[in-house]
Amino acid sequence: MLAIFKREMRAYFTTSIGYIFLASALVISAVIFSVTTVLDSPPTADTSLYFSGLIFVLMIFLPILTMKSFSEEKKTKTEQLLLTSPVSTTQMVLGKFFSSFVMLAIFLALSLIFIIPLTFFVPEENSGPNGALVMGNIIALLLVGMSFIAIGIFVSSLTENQFAAIVITIVTILLFFVISLFNSFISVYAIRVVLDWLSIFSRYTAFTYGVFDISALFYYISLTGVFIFLTVRVFESRKYN
Questions:
Q1: Which residue, among 158, 5, 148, has the nearest Cα to 71 in the 3D structure?
Q2: Which residues, other chains included, contact 233 with Cβ-Cβ below 8 Å and sequence gap of 6+?
Q3: Minimum mean pLDDT among 2-6, 93-97, 225-229: which range?
Q4: Distance CA 90, CA 155 (A)
Q5: DSSP 11
Q6: With contact defined as beta carbons under 8 Å apart, do 37 and 151 qualify?
């Protein structure tokens, strides 16, 4: 797994994909941060809207990051080399997953730099950023982001077309994101409960208030695990067929 991880991390920074991901995501994040804090009237140290906006940044840019995870391997005919390597299928998938997760962590760490100006631009009578809320939002974004990565890697394993991988991943994420909105149109209580349980966003809210939700942690880890398992099964079926 470590060999695959190192290979992917090296690929991010020896090609343009890693730089494009970080630069583009940070530029959009800077705009969102400016609009929701220092350019607000009056300037505010409340970063809740900023972090909520980052969900949409991840929704767009993580599929770009994961689009080539396996699509490129299939397109360049190097997939069989991976399947016949001494690394197990699970280790191969996890190596790809953790490399993307590290890129996510790097982006979120860099995005915290934007919070520094708040101590200079917000009025003196306002308190600075709430550390617990900032930490809660970062944890929530890491959990949401790892779910997005797992979905993106799974979709990438199904097609060699990278553009198709981006589109399908974004659509799938959107379905998980807005699925609870259909509740108002459904009269069956059991179905409403299931839809609300499947919604990614409904579990994000608690973290934004600095509350560590164990059930949400279990949900995001489970969702990530399901899509990693499905990706492993895709390659297991190819290896033995």
A1: 158
A2: none
A3: 2-6
A4: 16
A5: H
A6: no
Q: Provide the 8-state DSSP code for 125.
A: T
Mean pLDDT over 63-73 rounds to 81
Tokens standing for residue 17: 């994909």
CB count within 10 Å of CB 94 equals 20
What would the two tokens of residue 188 be?
């069956």
Q: Tell me the average pLDDT across 121-128.
A: 56
Place of tokens 């097609």: 159
Residue 180 has pLDDT above 70, yes or no: no
**Rounded distance between C-alpha atoms, residue 84 and residue 4, angstroms:** 13
- Residue 116 CA to residue 118 CA, distance in Å, equals 5
- C-alpha distance from residue 34 to each of 49, 74, 87, 114, 186 (Å): 11, 41, 45, 9, 39
Q: Give the contacts of 44 (CB within 8 A, at least 6 positions apart).
A: 36, 37, 122, 126
* Ramachandran sector of residue 211 (left: φ over 0; alpha: ψ -120 to 50; beta: rest): beta
Phi, psi torsion values for 46, nearest 5 degrees: -75, 115
Residue 211 near residue 133 (C-beta atoms within 8 A): no
d(CA 121, CA 148): 34
Radius of gyration of the chain (CA): 19
Which among 21, 42, 190, 220 has a CA at the least distance from the CA of 110?
21
d(Cα 23, Cα 40) in Å, to the nearest integer? 24
Residues near 111 by Cβ (< 8 Å), separated by ≥ 6? 26, 29, 33, 54
